[in-house]
Design goal:
single chain, 319 residues, alpha/beta, ten-stranded mixed beta sheet, globular, disordered C terminus
């Protein structure tokens, strides 16, 4: 069951009238037990140069004071879930409540640069073939790159745009009609790699996913409101297996599953999390019905294109 309540938003109406660019952007933020972080993020959003913003916060069953704090903040729409449904489900709930032509997904411990949203919207308006723009995620303390999930090395590509296989929902813009038409995030994944699955469907729908370094996000990497380290390894490999089963034809699927299982077994050994990896592999392989439930697999041409975009098989601790 989902409990939903909305807050009157006089500040939102004012922002729409004073917007330098009239395109409404629906900002969707998921919060879980991070009251201080979400307040700080909302304060940074008020400073955006693109002010035509609809701010939707989905509280994912927080057990701290988050919901009470958020209920007192004007100018936002608050959607309160009774339990932690996972970020994939929570973002879908927020997106379905949005009214703008663009959705801007933002983590609750992330702050966009003042020009970030305006630059993303302008680029989207000028490039009809781009479905998703992923931001440049930086650590707020060290000012070094954070969440570098791409095949390209950061030292040569950190400041140039390129087509890619995925993005980070810590900061990304997507066309709302496209997001809804392909079904949003795959909620069964719960957490981790839901962006990979969504991006793959966007690419298969004929759009590009692009890294946009001109839009910077400062990520504070809050220590609270996170899954346990062991759960990270479990969900990572389980979800990769499910993604391969959903989208890949038989031979490519078997090859990718075998490769990723090997990689994550090595990762698990190095991180002393082998048990979590084995459980993730077991649950990933056990759910065989995914193959039949999603009969529309990638064609040969789609597979070649996607493999060109995603050539990541390293042992680094990211995705």
């Amino acid at each position: 069951m989902t409990e939903i309540f909305q807050i009157s938003s006089p500040l939102l109406a004012q922002n729409r009238l004073s917007a330098p660019v009239g395109v409404l952007v629906s900002v969707v933020i998921v919060n879980w037990n991070r009251a201080a972080d979400i307040v700080q993020t909302l304060a940074h959003l008020r400073k955006q140069h693109h002010q035509s913003l609809e701010i939707i916060v989905v509280d994912n069953g927080s057990t701290d004071v988050s919901a009470d704090v958020l209920a007192q903040i004007p100018g936002i729409t608050l959607i309160r879930l009774l339990s932690n449904a996972g970020p994939a489900r929570a973002r879908n709930v927020g997106a379905n409540a949005a009214s703008g032509p663009y959705l801007f997904f933002l983590d609750n411990d992330a702050s966009p640069g003042r020009n970030a949203i305006r630059r993303l919207v302008q680029y989207m308006e000028d490039h009809d073939d781009v479905g998703i723009l992923g931001c440049r995620i930086m650590n707020s303390v060290s000012r070094r790159i954070d969440q570098w999930i791409y095949a390209q090395p950061y030292d040569t590509h950190g400041r140039q745009s390129f087509d890619t296989y995925s993005f980070s929902a810590a900061g990304a813009l997507i066309r709302a009609d496209l997001f809804l038409s392909i079904g949003g995030f795959w909620e069964d994944l719960f957490i981790y790699n839901e962006e990979v699955d969504l991006a793959l469907r966007v690419i298969r729908a004929g759009y590009r996913v692009e890294y946009a370094p001109a839009a910077t996000i400062l990520h504070r990497a809050a220590p609270t409101g996170r899954v346990a380290p062991g759960a990270y390894f479990y969900y990572q490999i389980r979800n990769w297996i499910w993604i391969f089963r959903r989208h890949y034809p038989a031979l490519a699927r078997q090859r990718k599953i075998a490769l990723y299982c090997l990689l994550y077994i090595i990762k698990g050994l190095l991180a002393f999390r082998l048990g979590n990896v084995i459980r993730g592999i077991w649950d990933g392989l056990f759910r065989r019905r995914i193959v039949a439930a999603f009969p529309d697999k990638m064609t040969g041409a789609e597979l070649v294109r996607y493999e060109q975009l995603n050539q990541r098989t390293s042992l680094r601790p990211g995705r």
